[in-house]
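Field: COMPLEX_INPUT
Field: COMPONENT_COUNT = four
Field: RESIDUE_TOTAL = 1174
Field: MODE = joint
Values follow.
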Amino acid sequence: MAVERIMERYTSRVREVTLGATAEQGGTRSHTITVGGDSTLPFLHFEGEVPHRPVLALEVNDVPPAWHQLLLEHYRDVLDDPGAWAAKAVRQFGADLVCLRLVGADPDGENRSPEECAQVVRRVLEAVKVPLIVIGCGDADKDNEVMPAVAEAGAGENLLLGIATQENYKTLTAACMVHKHNIIAQSPIDINICKQLNILISEMNMPLDRIVIDPTLGALGYGIEYTYSIMERIRLGALGGDSMLAMPVIVNVGYEAWRAKEANVPESEFPRWGDQPTRAVLWEAMTGAHGLQAGAHIVILRNPDALRLLRRHIEQLMVPNRA
Amino acid sequence: MAVERIMERYTSRVREVTLGATAEQGGTRSHTITVGGDSTLPFLHFEGEVPHRPVLALEVNDVPPAWHQLLLEHYRDVLDDPGAWAAKAVRQFGADLVCLRLVGADPDGENRSPEECAQVVRRVLEAVKVPLIVIGCGDADKDNEVMPAVAEAGAGENLLLGIATQENYKTLTAACMVHKHNIIAQSPIDINICKQLNILISEMNMPLDRIVIDPTLGALGYGIEYTYSIMERIRLGALGGDSMLAMPVIVNVGYEAWRAKEANVPESEFPRWGDQPTRAVLWEAMTGAHGLQAGAHIVILRNPDALRLLRRHIEQLMVPNRA
Amino acid sequence: MILVGERINGMFRDIRRAIRDKDPGPVQHWAKRQEEAGADYLDVNVGPAAEDPVEAMKWLVQVVQEVTEVPLCLDSTNYDAIEAGLRLCKKAAIINSVPADRPKIERVFPMAKEYGAKVIGLTMDRKGIPKDAEARTALAMEIVAAADEFGFPIEDLFIDPLVLPVNVAQDHGPEVLETIRQVKNLASPPPKTIIGLSNVSQKAVHRSLVDRTFVAMAMAAGLDAAILNLDDDALLDTIATARILLNQDVYADSYLKVFRSRRR
Amino acid sequence: MILVGERINGMFRDIRRAIRDKDPGPVQHWAKRQEEAGADYLDVNVGPAAEDPVEAMKWLVQVVQEVTEVPLCLDSTNYDAIEAGLRLCKKAAIINSVPADRPKIERVFPMAKEYGAKVIGLTMDRKGIPKDAEARTALAMEIVAAADEFGFPIEDLFIDPLVLPVNVAQDHGPEVLETIRQVKNLASPPPKTIIGLSNVSQKAVHRSLVDRTFVAMAMAAGLDAAILNLDDDALLDTIATARILLNQDVYADSYLKVFRSRRR
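Field: COMPLEX_OUTPUT
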């Protein structure tokens, strides 16, 4: 019996966003990276186009982070030098891009000045030639001082800057508009706030093709199913013509996966959970794989071993499965 | 096989309106007449109550009318005296009430003064002791002069005065309110205007139980089916709880039936239509019977022979048909 | 449309305080005000904060009945509170509500029969509120069957398909509308349908617009009753207009005014 | 919802004069204005008074297309006028309309195929507009069958169940809503449904209220398109809200603004 192949026809597609700028575009990157453009659900090549493979970023901090030993081992030689750290992430571990997190700006931590932060960004831009993501320390007021300086320091480089939230998006949006960067719009696993934030940012006249959605991924075991349903609705919205949801999606997998007890506790504490190093890698990789299945275009990781696993996974997912 | 008897249950009923006032009520009538109160469609005694039998009025004019010979024959001896005419209508022909039409007020006719008209009303009130209906000449401006005088002349008698229309209802309503009469609210075979007019009248603070609906009956052969559907909807509205449609209904059958060619043309002109006198009586009686079936509570007639036929018909319709 | 005023509810601060301080003022204010706006029933809910729900319900019922004869809709998950209220009700009340949960069904229907009360049945069970219309209707069917079993008249049963806020559970909206449509086919005569309208706009902007748009849609699907904000004139105008468009009231140019003043 | 702007119609005095005087001003004013309000199509009707409907239609189509790229809905009972208009249309148009009347069907569907136009089919025949939903749906079925026979894609067929003024034909309202519901079951894929919304409030008071209440009800029944007054902001807000409540657009606090600006 012949099986009828039911295919969906979508009217729209996810918008493309390009990160980085080459010399002729006014920047210093060796190449640009374009994400998005999908005209179907993730990896359903037989139904529509998935023109760009998802990209993987490794996280770099401006100060040595309080990460798990297992992670720190990979970066021990470069923890004091974000430029060297970024270079290692790209050259040794094969990251498509670098996500620089300016933890040092935190007023409860080192409380670095905007100029110091801008200096770090310059350093990293010199050290690597891939497009750059820069994320603030998370303190809204401080980020509103730091990020404009970062945007200025990176002028011409077409950075991806974050993180804009519904409560705090105006300063960052303005900085991105003035210096022509892209913006990460983050919502707390809530499609309505996600859409509303995109509207608010676009109402400041930010072009829609310079916004990337961070839907706030839950890690494996921590609400990952709920994130999936939100991300699926975002994609369906985009495919159905909702221009305020038709942005590429970024997910912060390293950060979320390592917040989970399952990635951190030693085997001695939960013998039945098995070897912790293996488990931690898998926890991060599986969280990332889930993000891809749900529609992520940029995945931020911490563990180079997780990156390696995901890289192979993406290759398989991108094999055409057209009818 | 047992047949299931499906019965409707209505939540409301037609409002009762009482016409006339006895001495102890401040008037001079020998009795009052109450119409309405139905809690079902016309004559479905098995479904609800039909507490009052419909009543029949005969039309009396204040000046000799240009009626068909056949009609005039019945009234030849009283045409010049509305009081005597009314008395004949009641005593000889058995009318339940008299409908005095003040044709003489017409500015294009005798153009009688309000006081002259009031005088006629007084004369008729003296001549008969049944409740009285008084209708103006049809000229809106003139009726607005005449009817207040009539209302004053009939103060205490709880008359039924007409005709209020959507374009001209305020003066008559005010007169009815001041002198405590009932009002006829006429609409042109249009349930929406019918309802709207009742609303307008009631917004002047006229009590709803002093309004009688004249839906403008079409004669047999002249849109009678359409009138039926409007009257049916009025009744269904009343039974369904629409207080602005829950008024008793009056129909002007004599006037309408005699406007029809079928009542008037001699047999010589249309031999196949048969004997004109018989035909004219039947035309009026059938139009009246239709009005009753459609839900009329007061039927105004001209021909005493038609009245006699309808009287017998009503007796049969009022035989209980409860299960 | 049967309109149930939502305002006498301990969720509102003034009513919560009134219950705490035994101050009849705010309660009677809203009782009168909702009556004037045309309430067919007044919902009475002691709120989650009431210390003694039974006493609070008794007090509310008494205080409300001092100023109005509009019948009540006793709204509580505490059936002792409801029963205490029913004992005091001068007119046949509505019990709000019972889910498709057997022990609660067994408590509610006999009580409703004893006091001649109507009942609101919720399309939810112990597992919660299902999303799709079929599952909601199946739960409604369970309640209809239970009513039948207890000899409770189906015309006195209101099925509430449970409206959820549009800004967090948008996909429930069409399912609720479809449930209303399906429930009208469950029995002959069918049960009535009712919704807690204001839920749909909870924490949304343009609350009145959302409420009145949804009520028109629900009325088109066959809605019989709603618990709602009678202080919202635009909402009442929409209901009046929907009734006209559904041919439930006869159109007249003054239909809005007539609808507003129908209780006076 | 596919929104068709109703304003370029010789029934309106300014357009009638514009056609008579060959003055493009009012026509182009309304073309731009309706485009800005979010029109997906612009209805173009020369009106009953046009001396030469064919020439008038050609002129209207040309004049409108000078200022906007919004596709057109050619509205006439004169099929020569429609064909003359189709020849000039730069984008696929809608033919408004064909009744369930064989000679007209035989004229319209081949013409629609030739010009790649969509078609509005009316649920009426030579005998007029039936009252009840079943008879309306039966006429819709005839048109669907005809479309099929002529190899016309059902997705490009709009069924218009013919809304009548509420103040003279109130009993048609619920039948129209039921027809919309039934038509969606006539084929797979089903034909689309469309109404001439402003008809419902013709000569009624509170026109905007009546229009927007009815459109919400019709959307709940499955309406796909409407020919309407795009100058009515409250109406557009209701449509935006109904789309949210039907889960057709994702809710965001700014949804009204987004809906209004979706074409800009």
